[in-house]
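Q: Predict the assembly, please.
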Amino acid sequence: MADNRPCRRDLMNRINTASFAVDDVKLFLDTHPCDTEALEYFHEFQRIRKAALKEYSRYYGPLTIDTADVDECDRWNWINDPWPWQEGGC
Amino acid sequence: MWNYEKRLQYPVKITQTNPKMAQVIISQFGGPDGELAASMRYLSQRYTMPYKEVTGILTDIGTEELAHMEMVCVIVHQLTRDLTPEELKASGFDKYYVDHTLALWPQAASGAPWTATYFQSKGDPITDLHEDLAAEQKARTTYENILRLINDPEVADPIRFLREREIVHYQRFGESLRIVQDRLDSKNFYAFNPEFDIRDSGKCCK
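A: Predicted assembly structure:
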């Protein structure tokens, strides 16, 4: 692929940061379901997470089954990239 | 239904092996206050929990504990990968190696195998939430005990993250207990068990 791909580490950092924000506020919302400020916070980071996961998948392979898009390619690519505990994994 | 994400919740990148530390840290995989017991505890308790906020917190924290179990396993794996027979003998990791080679297996630091007797699923929300609150504190103490033995910042960093999550989970379980008690008889929280004595609590489907 060409060199105009987005930086892999930057993309991964964006996914990790936004995903952790979602993980954390999700727990807060479980016990504070009517907190509008927390709901807004959730929506903002959920949107960033979704966009970053989609972009990551397009250039570097899927991290979730939701972004394992088989339409663009005729083979199953979920198993190809390294696992998190392996060299080069996330 | 779970979706696996091919990433760690918090990064683990350990460049120096240390089988002695691995032997201690493995307790947070398969020990009495480890992440496997934590996840199984919450995911087992949630089915009969009659309050949706608390069912949600048990599901979501139980799921997050699986991610913590994965992080602990990655720490142990990276501390033990490519060990030579000489390193195994010198470190005392040879006793683990003889049964498991360098694979991960849930045991306590003492070598005791993981067992479901490490947790309780009692079917009473006040009882179960007190167990959950205690479990988070016991795990925090264990991580603090581990941190006193660590010199390598690459190991200490993810362990500190895991310790902090115990505190967040304790807070959420405290809020869950308050939610449960707000719905009980304030003069006698033990007047009835809402997981057993209210028989129409689960009626949502025809």
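Chain A touches chain B through 26 residues (CB under 8 Å). Chain A has one domain: 1-90.
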